[in-house]
Amino acid sequence: MAELRDGRLHDARHTAATELLLLGVPERAVMGIMGWSNSSMAVRYQHTTAQIRRASRSGSAA
Predict the structure, then answer these.
(1) pTM for this one?
(2) Which end of the chain is more exposed for a tag (fewer CB within 10 A), N or C?
(3) Which residues contact 56 (CB under 8 A, 6 or more apart)?
(4) How far apart are CA 11 and CA 41, in angstroms?
(5) How do residues 1-35 score in pLDDT, each as one tens digit?
């Protein structure tokens, strides 16, 4: 059986924000969904999504 760590609400929010940006949801819409008042939070997730997109184009793991 696989070992899974306990999830946290923060982890779920991080995953949701990342997935929304990967799906191409506009930054302003993600900001509204996540309750962010400025784009500095979105910039944190865009760095992650850029890495994932590059890895998927090259066929390697992120």
Answers:
(1) 0.66
(2) N
(3) 62
(4) 15
(5) 667 677 788 888 888 988 898 888 998 999 999 99
